[in-house]
C-alpha cells in the first residue's frame, strides 16, 4: 500500500513543495562542509561530542553489526562508532556530496580505526537499499532538514532487520519554560553569529535556528516514529532538553 506523502518547509513546519527545502539544504551544507565540525564544537561548547558518543551507545552495535549512518555529514557519528563500539561495516550516507568528501578524507586519514566504510550520496527519504539490510541505523541533526519526515522514518524502518535499533540525535524542546526561552534567544542571536564568524554566511544559519524552533517536541516526534512502525520508542534529554536522543526498535 502506498503511503500518502506530506512535505513541509523545514524552516517553518508549514506545507510546501519538497524542492524548497531540498535545494536549500544542499546549498547550505555544501557551502559549510569544511567548517561544519568547528561550528558544532563552538556552538555546543564542546558538548556535541558527548551527545555523539551517547547516540552510538544507544544504537546497540555489536562486532557483527552492519550499520548505516543516515544524514551522516562529515562522519562524526560513524567515526565515534568506529572508536567506541566498532561494528563490522558502516555505510556512511548524506544528501550533500561535499560533506561526504570531508568524511572520506577523514577515513583516508585513518579515523575509522580499521572499520570498513562505504560512502554514498543518499536521500534518506528514498533510501536505495533493500529491505532488512542493516542491523542498526543512526542519524544526527538530519531528520529536521527533511521535508517529508514520515517518509524518511518509514524508509529507515524498512531497511532495518527485525529487532534492530534506530538511534536519532536531534535538537529538541527544553521542557522548562525559562530554559526554553533562554535557549530560543540563543538560537536567534548566537547561531547566526557563529555562522557569520566561521563561514560569513549569516543567512544560512538563520535558517538553521529557524528549523530547530520549528521541529516537533520530544513527544510529538516519538509518536511520528511509532506511526512509522517503530516499537519501544523512548527518548532521553540532554542539556535540559536542548537535544534529545530518540530510539526505536524495528
From TrEMBL:
- The species is Slackia exigua (strain ATCC 700122 / DSM 15923 / CIP 105133 / JCM 11022 / KCTC 5966 / S-7)
Q: Which CDD domains match?
A: AdoMet_MTases
Q: Which residues form a coiled coil?
A: none
Q: Which PROSITE patterns match?
A: SAM_MT_UBIE
Name listed for the protein in its UniProt record: Demethylmenaquinone methyltransferase
Q: What is its EC number?
A: 2.1.1.163
Is S-adenosyl-L-methionine among this UniProt entry's keywords? yes
Swiss-Prot/TrEMBL catalytic activity: a 2-demethylmenaquinol + S-adenosyl-L-methionine = a menaquinol + S-adenosyl-L-homocysteine + H(+)
In terms of HAMAP family, this protein maps to: MenG_UbiE_methyltr
Amino acid at each position: 500500500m502506498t503511503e500518502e506523502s506530506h512535505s513541509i518547509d523545514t524552516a517553518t513546519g508549514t506545507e510546501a513543495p519538497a524542492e524548497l527545502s531540498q535545494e536549500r539544504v544542499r546549498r547550505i551544507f555544501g557551502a559549510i562542509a569544511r567548517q561544519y565540525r568547528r561550528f558544532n564544537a563552538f556552538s555546543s561548547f564542546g558538548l556535541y561530542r558527548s551527545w555523539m558518543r551517547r547516540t552510538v551507545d544507544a544504537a546497540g552495535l555489536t562486532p557483527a553489526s552492519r550499520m548505516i549512518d543516515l544524514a551522516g555529514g562529515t562522519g562524526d557519528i560513524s567515526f565515534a562508532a568506529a572508536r567506541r563500539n566498532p561494528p563490522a561495516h558502516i555505510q556512511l550516507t548524506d544528501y550533500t556530496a561535499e560533506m561526504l568528501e570531508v568524511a572520506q578524507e577523514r577515513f583516508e586519514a585513518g579515523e575509522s580505526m580499521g572499520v570498513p566504510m562505504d560512502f554514498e550520496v543518499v536521500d534518506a527519504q528514498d533510501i536505495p537499499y533493500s529491505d532488512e539490510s542493516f542491523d542498526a541505523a543512526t542519524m544526527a541533526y538530519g531528520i529536521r532538514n527533511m521535508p517529508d519526515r514520515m517518509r524518511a522514518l518509514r524508509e529507515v524502518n524498512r531497511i532495518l532487520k527485525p529487532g534492530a535499533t534506530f538511534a536519532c540525535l536531534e535538537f529538541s524542546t527544553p521542557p522548562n519554560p525559562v530554559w526554553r526561552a533562554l535557549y530560543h534567544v540563543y538560537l536567534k542571536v548566537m547561531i547566526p553569529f557563529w555562522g557569520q564568524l566561521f563561514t560569513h554566511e549569516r543567512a544560512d544559519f538563520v535558517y538553521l535556528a529557524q528549523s530547530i524552533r520549528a521541529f516537533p517536541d520530544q513527544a510529538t516526534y516519538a509518536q511520528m516514529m511509532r506511526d512509522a512502525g517503530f516499537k519501544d520508542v523512548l527518548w532521553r534529554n540532554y542539556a535540559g532538553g536542548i537535544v534529545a536522543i530518540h530510539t526505536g526498535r524495528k
